[in-house]
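> tool_call: predict_assembly(chains=four)
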Amino acid sequence: MNGLQLKLQKREKLADQLYGQILEQIVSGNLGEGTKLPSENEICASFGVSRPVVREALRKLQSDGLVYARQGVGSFVKRRPPQGLIDFGGVSDVAGLLRCFEARIAIEGATARMAANRASLRHHRDIQNALKMLEDGIAAGDIADKADLDFHMTIARASGNEIFVTILTSLHDVMSKSMMVALNITRGGSKERAQKVLNEHRQIYDAIVGGDGDSAELLMRYHLHQARQRVTDHARDI
Amino acid sequence: MNGLQLKLQKREKLADQLYGQILEQIVSGNLGEGTKLPSENEICASFGVSRPVVREALRKLQSDGLVYARQGVGSFVKRRPPQGLIDFGGVSDVAGLLRCFEARIAIEGATARMAANRASLRHHRDIQNALKMLEDGIAAGDIADKADLDFHMTIARASGNEIFVTILTSLHDVMSKSMMVALNITRGGSKERAQKVLNEHRQIYDAIVGGDGDSAELLMRYHLHQARQRVTDHARDI
Amino acid sequence: MNGLQLKLQKREKLADQLYGQILEQIVSGNLGEGTKLPSENEICASFGVSRPVVREALRKLQSDGLVYARQGVGSFVKRRPPQGLIDFGGVSDVAGLLRCFEARIAIEGATARMAANRASLRHHRDIQNALKMLEDGIAAGDIADKADLDFHMTIARASGNEIFVTILTSLHDVMSKSMMVALNITRGGSKERAQKVLNEHRQIYDAIVGGDGDSAELLMRYHLHQARQRVTDHARDI
Amino acid sequence: MNGLQLKLQKREKLADQLYGQILEQIVSGNLGEGTKLPSENEICASFGVSRPVVREALRKLQSDGLVYARQGVGSFVKRRPPQGLIDFGGVSDVAGLLRCFEARIAIEGATARMAANRASLRHHRDIQNALKMLEDGIAAGDIADKADLDFHMTIARASGNEIFVTILTSLHDVMSKSMMVALNITRGGSKERAQKVLNEHRQIYDAIVGGDGDSAELLMRYHLHQARQRVTDHARDI
C-alpha cells in the first residue's frame, strides 16, 4: 500500500482530470452554488472527451456531494468547498479525502460495533484516555490530530480484529497530509464546531462502554458522515 | 502493509497462543463438538495465564464461530474445522483467514452496494466476464481462485472508490496462501457445493446489473458469511 | 389496521391500476422476459394517463423486481411471475405481497438481531419448537404455513419489544390470504426447494441461539429476500 | 391494532411490573445515577419473584438505556429520566415510548432510504412543506407535534410502500399520548435544543432530495436515536 499507487486505466484518468477541472471551477466560484453545469454534450465538446468519461466524472462529483442531478434536467452545483482546501492540498487531495471518509464509514462502522461487543476493560481505559487527550487538546485550541487518530485506532484495536488496525494504519499513512489540511480548515474557526466534534466522539465512547453495538455503529457512521460534510461544507455549521 | 506485521502487545500475544492451542484441541478431536471447555479458572491454572488472557482467547474463539457461551454455564465447542486446514496452513492461518472474512463482509458489502449504484456499462461487462471465467473454471473442476478474486476486484473497481481496490489488493497479498488452502478444502468435494458458490456469485451480479444496491450489499454479505462458515464447517452442506 | 384500508390519493390509484395492467401483460406472457416496454410517451397515450402516473407505476414494477431500466434506453421485463399467483390471488395481491416482504426485511432483520442479543433460554426453546414443527410439516409434504408463522412470531417475541409482535400480527391478518397463495405456489414442487427454505430457517435459529446478532440479522434478511424472489421467480431454483 | 392490547404471558407481566418499580426508584432519585442496583438474588428475595423474571426486567432496563451492566460486578443506574415524564405519563408510557422509538429506528431507516431512491418531485414538495411547517412552529415556540408527524408520514408515503404508512399510522394512534408528553418535556426548555432537532430534520430532507439513500437512512436513524435519548436524558444537551 505504498503511496496508493493506483494504476488507473486511461478512461479513469481522463475522468479524474475532468473531475479536478470542474472542482476547480466550483472552488473558485466560477460555478456558484445552485448553478447548472453545462450539458453532457457541451462538456464532451469543450473538453474533447467521450460521453462515458463525462458521466464518470459527474458520477464522482455527485457521490462526493459536490453536485446533484435532477432527472431529465441536468446537474447542479450543491456545495462550494473552502478555498483553503485546494490552496493547501490540491484538487486530487480533496477528492482522495472525500473517498477516504467514504471508505472509513464502512470500515469504522464495523470496528465500533465490534468494539462495543468485544472490548475488555483495558480497551475501555485506552479509548477513554484517547478521548481525554482529545478534550484537552481541543480545550487548548489545538487541532489535536494525534489524539483524534488515537481515538479511532484504539477502537479498531478493541474490535479484536487486527486486520482493521492494519487497514486504518495504511489509510492514515497515505492520507495524513490531506487529513491535516482538512483538520486545519474544519476545526479552525468556531468554538461551537469544536464542541460538536467532541460530542460526537463522546457519544461513540459511551455506546462502546455501554456495550451497545447498534448505537456504536450508528454514531461512528454519523460522526464520519459529518466529518466528510465538514470538508466541503465548512460554512454551514451543522 | 508488508506481511501484516502486527506489533502485538504482550497480553494479546498470549491470548493468541492460547487461542491456537485450544483450536488445535478442537481440530484434533480431543475437544469434540458440543464438549464443554474447562472453566476459566481451570484454563488459567493449566496454562499459567491470567484471567483477562483467557477471556480474550475465548472471546475470539466465540466470534470466530468455533465456540459458544451459555451464560452462567460455560463455553462449548460449536464446530470442528477440517483437519486439512491446519495441515496445510497452520493454526494462525486459520485464525487470520476467519478475521479476513470478517473484515471483507464490512468492506465488500459497501463495494457491492456502491457498484450497484454507480457501475457503468463497461463495469457490468467486466464483472460478467469474471463471472463467466468462474463458471468455466468450476465446470472444468478447477478451484478457479483467480477468477474468484477477479470477480471481487472488478466489483471493487466498479464502486468508484479506488481506496477499496487498494485495500482488497493488500488483503489478498497477505492472505493468498491461506485463501488457497481454504479454497482447496471448501471447494474440493461435492459438485453441489460448487454450484451453490456459483449461484451466490450470480445473484450478486444480477443485483449489481439491476442497480439494486440493497440486494447487492445483502447478497455480498451473505456470500462472504457463507464462505467464512465453509472454512470451519465443511461437513454440513449449507 | 383493519384490512389495510389505504386512502390512496388519486394519482396513486391510477398508478396502481396501471401497475396491475402491465403486470397482467407480463404474467400472461404478452410481454415476455427481456421484452422492452413501450416508451413513457406511448404508455401515456395508450392509457390516457399523465407522465408522473406512468413513472410511478414503472418505479414500482422496478422496485418489485419485475422490470429493470437501462438509462437512456428504456424499461425491460425482468421476470415473469407464475400464472397461478394471479389465478388464485389477483394482481393487487401480488403487488401487496411483494411490498409486504419488503417491509418485513426491515422489521424482521431488527427482530432477529434483538432476539440474538436478548432471548432467554425459554425463548430459545420456543423458537426451536417452531422450527421442529416446520421440519415435521415439510417432511410430511405440508406447506406448514402455521409453523412458518410461529417461527417468525416467536423470534419477534424474543426481541423483547412487543411492538414488533403487534406489527407482525397485523401484517399477517391483512396478508394471510396472499401468503397462502404464495406458499402454495413456491413450496409446491421440488423437494430441493423445500430443503432450502428449511435450511434458511435453521441458519437463523443457529445464529440466534449462538447470540450472534450480526449473522441473525443478515440471515433473516437473506431469507426474506429469497422468499420475495421466489414469489416471482418460481422457475429458477436459487 | 386497537390499543396495543398485548396478551402478555404471566412471567412477562411480572417482569414489566418489576421494570416499572425499579424505574420509579430511578426517577424519584432513590436510586441515583451511578448507583449499583441490588444483586439478582436480593431483588428475587425482596420482590418475591423468580430469577428469570429479574433477568428479563434488567435486560429491558438495559436495552432502554436506563441501566448498564458490568460483567461480574452488577447493574448500575445510567440515567435518571425527568420527573415530569412519569407525572404526565405513568411508568408504562415511558417504557412503551422507548420501545416505540426502537421500532421506529428500524422502520423509518428503511422508509428514508426508499424515499431517497424513489420519491417523485411531488413527494419532495410534500416533505419540504412539512419541514417548513415544523420550522415555523418551532420559531413560534410550539412543540409542532403535528408538523413533526407530517414530516415522518410524508417520507413514509414517498417510500412507495403503503405498508409503512399503515404501520406508522397505527403506531401513532397508540402512542400519541406518550409522544405528546415526551415532546412537552424534551422540546420545552432551550432554544438550542429546538435548533438541533430542526437541523436533524433538515439533514434528512437534504439527503432525500439529493437522492442519497445511504445518508438518508443514516440520518433518520441518528435522529430517532437522539430523540430516544432525549426522553431519558433531558439534562445533557447533546
